[in-house]
Amino acid sequence: MLLKSVLQLWFFTLSSGSLAAAADSPPQILLSGPASSSSLSSSSSSSLPLSAPAYRTDLLALHKHLVEIPSTSGHEHDAAVFLANYFAELNWHYELQPVAPRADTPSDKPRFNVLAWPPSSSSSSSSSSSSSSPPSPKVLVTSHIDCVPPHIPYSISTPASEAPNTTTVIAGRCSVDAKGSVAAQLTAIHALLATGALRPSDVLVAYVVGEEVSGEGMRTFSAHNATQLGATLRAAVFGEPTENRLACGHKGALRAAVVATGKAAHSGYPWLGKSATEVLSKAVVRLLDPATELGSSARYGNTTLNVGVLQGGVAANVVAAHARAEVLARVAVEPHETGHEKVVARIEELLREVDAEALRLEVDGGRGPTRCDCDVDGFDTFVANYATDVPYLAGSHARYLYGPGTIHVAHGDNEALTVGELEEAVEGFKKLILHSLEV
Ligand SMILES: [Zn+2]
Question: Where in the sequence does UniProt note compositional bias of the Low complexity kind (predicted)?
């Protein structure tokens, strides 16, 4: 209850001008309209190629600011404050939605989801009393602001003296996953609002924390907002690295541990005991054998298994009494609610075949695959092997999963994308948002 009352203290809606309550030293924001230049290339904008979109400078400036802020899961405070400043500068309404801290979250740096929506043309933004609650949008545009560790600084391949072009490479943690999506989504929304193709009251954005760990940001958002959103929401557009392809869904996951129990003995007389490490080794070899079938489907392919942690024994001269393997399976078997249970049954069957007495499976949790909508003209499609926040938002809306950059570098020390990929994503998000208004 103490936690709840502390959180309630933080659960407030800010309007522009009251931001200092949340920020010790708010980062400087450089914004400009499409016709003016901004921080990245103000001295050389005249040399931009003719094909450069009008939004390039602002897109790259926003992306740079986002990537420069370290925001490892649990430490998203400064990124949330940056976005709050950003929306305040635009005279958007916004809300900082508290999310429970992780174990290593600093007490003076609480975590927030950032919800925001553009002012309707009839309301004067910062003084509007209607800003206290989100609107009833047709489309939710969302992604996450937390990143995997370690933080890697922002870098750009084009020298400061030259204008970036479509082949310019931008590197740094979260440059792809998922601040590339955040920057592209907001750029797309600004462009659609500017032309009148999107009405301000039809869109809500939510940038959530904790996606890279257990999805607690989206779960919190869903708990607070899904019921109200359900009345009007037609679609949610989730930004994740898909190489600008539209995902038809992604595999589910099963977290579990294979536990082996043996009997300790002197290592010179191993027949007097039973080696848990030996039994576990046999089990792991069996589970990882390419010929072992853990469950498959036409849409999602094969269920795959990673043995991420192996532990066992106490000393080289003692027959091991205990051993343990922590595993994560990427589940290809539907349905969403119970597909993982079929993989559990298959693993348990295999463990019985290896050693029914010594081996057991401890299931930590899981789910089957998540379906997304991918019947939109103009997009290549694929199925993703990674987890997302998509299943954590309750509701019957259409669900699109899309964004710039590739998952193959997303959690690596080589995380990077090109300016051309970012700009293609802006155009892709525009199409998806407009499509969402019609579904
Ligand atoms: Zn991600």
Answer: 118-133
The one catalytic residue in 95, 211, 278, 423 is: 211
Distance from the alpha carbon of residue 178 to the mean position of ligand 1, in angstroms: 5
**pLDDT given for residue 10 in this prediction:** 38
SS3 call for 365: strand
Q: Please indicate whether residue 95 is annotated as part of the active site.
A: no
Contact 374, 383 (CB under 8 A): no
Cβ proximity of 324 and 311 under 8 Å: yes
pLDDT at 439: 86
Please tell me the distance between residue 137's alpha carbon and the centre of ligand 1 in angstroms.
24
Tell me the β-bridge partners of 322: 261
Going from the C-alpha of 293 to that of each of 130, 325, 350, 404, the distances in angstroms are 56, 19, 10, 33
- Average pLDDT in the 341-358 region? 98
- pLDDT grade, residue 50 (50/70/90)? low
Structure confidence at residue 46 as a pLDDT band (50, 70, 90): very low
Rounded distance from Cα 216 to ligand 1 centre (Å): 13
Whether 89 shows a pLDDT value over 60: the answer reads: yes
In angstroms, how far apart are the furthest CA atoms of the chain? 85
Residue with tokens 């750009």: 156
Cis? peptide before 335, omega within 30° of 0: yes
Q: Where are the beta strands (DSSP E) in 45-162?
A: 93-99, 111-117, 139-144, 155-156
Structure tokens at 228: 């109200």
* Cis geometry, peptide bond prior to residue 178 (ω within 30 degrees of 0): yes
Reported as a single tens digit per residue, the pLDDT across 196-208 is 999 999 999 999 9
Evaluated on CA atoms 307, 211, 106, 98, the torsion sign reads negative
Radius of gyration for the chain, computed over Cα atoms and rounded to the nearest angstrom: 25
- 222-248 confidence digits (pLDDT tens): 999 999 999 999 999 999 999 999 999
Q: How far is CA 45 from the centre of its chain?
A: 33
Ordered structural domains, the chain, with CATH: 2-249+371-436 (3.40.630.10), 252-367 (3.30.70.360)
Model pTM score: 0.84
